[in-house]
## 1
Amino acid sequence: MSTESTAAPGKLDAAVLKIAGVVVLGAIMSILDVTVVSVALPTFQTEFGASYAEVAWTMTGYTLALATVIPLTGWAADRFGTKRLYMAAILLFTIGSALCATADGIGQLIAYRVLQGLGGGMLMPLGMTIMTRAAGPERIGRLMAVLGIPMLLGPIGGPILGGWLIDAASWHWIFLINLPIGVIALVYAQFALPRDNPSPSESFDFLGMLMLSPGLALFLYGVSSLPETGTVSATKVWLPALAGALLVVGFVLYSFKPRHPLLDLRLLTNRNLSVAAITLAVFTIAFMGAGLLFPSYFLQIRGETTLAAGLLMAPQGIGAMITMPIAGTLADRVPVGRTVPFAMLLMAAGFFGFTQVSTDTSYWLLGGSLFVMGLGMGGTMMPLMTSALKTLTSHEVARGSTLLNILQQVAGSIGSALMSVILTSRLNGSPDIPGAGVTEAQLAIAAKQDPSVTQQLPVEPSVLDRGLSFAADAFGTTFWVAFGLVVITLIPAYFLPRRKQSSPLQEGEPQAAPVMLH
């Protein structure tokens, strides 16, 4: 059965909302998976007898797979159609999840996580493309607000869900839970997504793929190795990062020559897209980098359980859930240059609260800071994506969403590495405990999580108190850097459009095929 969208301009009809439901399911699987697995790293160490550096590759391998496959998504969406490719991505992610649950060694788990990442890497850019085409230019903001829901719930629900599944069942269930969601998403997609209308005429940019995909993977490998080594001079860091950067630069220089490049950088000549992309990149470095440290503060400095740390993060999601629907509606009516800077100021105010952390900072203050930060976040990320995509033509949407997703992935990895290195260097700057091979801060954190370590290495209580205070100051210093980056984000945000944007689709270009259910 076919039904065309009959909703009034700006409103989301039932057919469009059904399509949004498919995309949200895929996004939930992808985003929740990252946060759930991050909670399970200590469990993997115990189960597989591996070091933290080894189990961290269950995260890094997934990220590298994402970076490898995302550049191919724009071309593949045009060539094979978004529906077929989206369903293939869900299937690949689900199969990877099932295999992860069967792993009996850390090497197998890392390999299966790479397979899972190949599917997961396509879900977000394809989802954004599907929703943008379905909504049309006048409703992108509202639909992006719907897509933002899993982005908000992932960092909150992931630690809570992961901690509960590991405690109540076993680590296998953090992967097995994706199976029923994947099956439902596949069936749902078959009936809800519009019929494909692929454009097979474009040639595949094979040379571009040989430069961009390995380049991104090598660069992110080097950056991801930075927290482990603690220095950019380590061969494991600078060599792959440099090689990857050279390949990416080579791709940038080459990409303007072919008619259909793997990643269409010509889109950056669109001023609205380029300004929104720069703002989004700086914002992502600050938010994604510091976002991983919020639960770490609760776990390491305050000695909370994983479940409690997840619950303490809830105010951030509540704040974002309040402003995101409002921001989505405003993005369709009011230029983002008039709203995003105010949201950035809220983000900065929330971050400032965490620059003051100590060993006994009031949870009311921290919860309030997270809530204010969430209010700002809800008014920032999706409006920026809306601003970037709504001035693109129907054909350019797949390429534009791919470009934004690559940018976010690289910026998030840089932010995580930057904040981790700053925090680690500050912790290592604490006074050493003679003959113990650890600093006072490191021992205090270990004792906070497992008091029995003081039986193996007896020290005066004053030493632990001093070390914990030093560790709290290290977190505060790191949050100062994140605060500074959020403030810097106000500079590109100032150049966001302050007049209503006109879409090529509104100026006469034929829109994508009408929304159909069959």
## 2
Amino acid sequence: MSSEELGETLLPKRVALPIFASDPLSSVAYATQEILLVLTVGGTAFLYLTPWIGLGVVLLMAVVVLSYRQVVYAYPSGGGSYEVVSTNLGANSGLVVAAALLVDYVMTVAVSVASGVDNIISAFTALASYRVLMAVLFVVLLAAVNLRGVRESGKAFATPTYLFIAGILIMIITGFVKMAFGHSPVASSAKYPITPTDHNNTLTGFALLMLALRAFASGCTALTGVEAISNGVPAFRRPKSRNAAQTMAAMGITAVVMFAGITVLSLTSKIHITNDGCQLVGFPNCSTAPQQTVIAQLAAAIFGGDHSVLFYYIQAATALVLVLAANTAFNGFPLLASILAQHRYLPRQLHTRGDRLAFSNGILALALVNVALLVAYKANVTNLIHLYILGVFTSFTLSQIGMVRHWNELLRTETDQRARAAAKRSRIINGFGACVTALVLVIVMATKFTQGAWLAVVAAIFLFVNMKAIHRHYDEVADELAVDAPAEVFTRPGRVHGVVLVSKLHKATLRAIGYAEALRPDVLEAVTAAVDRDEASELERQWDEFDIDIPLKVLDSPFREITKPVVTYVRGLRKESPRDAVAVFIPEYVVGHWWEQPLHNQSALWLKSRLLFMPGVMVISVPWQLASSRRAGGPARRAPGAVRRGEPSPLTPPRR
């Protein structure tokens, strides 16, 4: 797609919802489960805390959604938390948010895919040994779909997300109807008592508070991805801000209803789930058999067993949407990386759009990191979840503080009373949001740091330091290349000394000589290194026989080297005449197959790697196309900006 077709990729609300909100919507599939996993370390004695913890998560979701609606209206250009914090709190604070978000986007993919695989295994337990392979294949599939472009991936992800929402709502309604008629569903795990991990179910005081806070921190995974809509406002159709705000409200309401319904039904059906299956007394093959997820147990209890059609529907929809929820990160990560690259905090290649108008390099980078992460952690949600959500609340807190400063600045200059009233109302919302999310950040840090969250902190610090270093490098290069006076550009060397490198006398050598002569340097000579004295003598004989009209200089090479004698000779030319430029012409073969590349041009590659570091030396490759290159017909793969086969000429009118 050409750049002019970018407008065609803008999204209506019905497609934007599954693209940007699939992460928070799908996280209800494991948020309740994470709360229960923490509380059951003490057996069933502390499950009474679940409703209060769930209520806290619901209230937090409402606060965060309301706060980010203010961001959507105030910053419609996208960038979300990064732009808000950079503008209002400074570049360093912005980089803290950016580093935290990049880490969290990576974890979003890993946790969502691993959880999706868990739900597949819940329906088909024989697949348990293929957990890592399935997770890696799903990441590769997601990357491939996203490389096709935003609109195409939107169509691919919309239907599964809506099927998941419909399935969960049908399950919740059916469960509550059964409860109303006195037939409360009972989970298959309800018959298995839980052995406490620490054999102590009488925690009180501070220990009980820490357990509840840890469960709350795990339940806050339901909020991951909420900020994605504020990052992606430019991808919405006009009016962008209003459509994004309405989509965010729809996402918040839907997520709250599903999370609350699943939490209530989980308690009613007496679901028991633990980190170690052997804590479930009587659970068969506890050391090898996988436990069913909370969603799977609910579906089986409500729809009449784990062989019913609706059970498989729920599992299929949940697994699919969890895998596709990673699309939130596949949209957010490349976009944020592109903005950072534009601001010179990441390599410029991440700012490049591919030929389908997607940020191809960012998509590929995210996929590669996640493949490594899933393999290292064996696609285990319990192990990955501890690295999660730390970045979310870092960005939540700093962005809300930034929004408070934004409204303060606006109120200093705004005179319209209605606008001032709206700004004051927004300031209250963002201020309250900052306080709440800061408190949650402290809770998450305190309860998850020693369990693995420290790795996320280290990764964020590593990114922050590297982004600062990249920015400093780009600034130094810009200063070095800055032109102080126009005359600098036109400074010419006194003379040009041409050097044609020769190994043997053949067609490629003759083409290089002809090209060098056509450029008419002031001095032109051929140079060869005498690696083998007999071969050098034969070359000199052929040179005289063919009566080539430029001198041939044979460099002594007692240690059978090519690079060092040539580099030493060129350096000597520069020392003799520092104002002269040296143009080195190197004949090179163009091959048509990848396996031919290691067989040719290796000496030329080493020479160029040394000569390019020498000031005043120009290295000119003179290609000779071998027969295999002509048969290949050019490069096989397409990179951004590559020449495309069958492309119309610039004079051809564009297709309508």
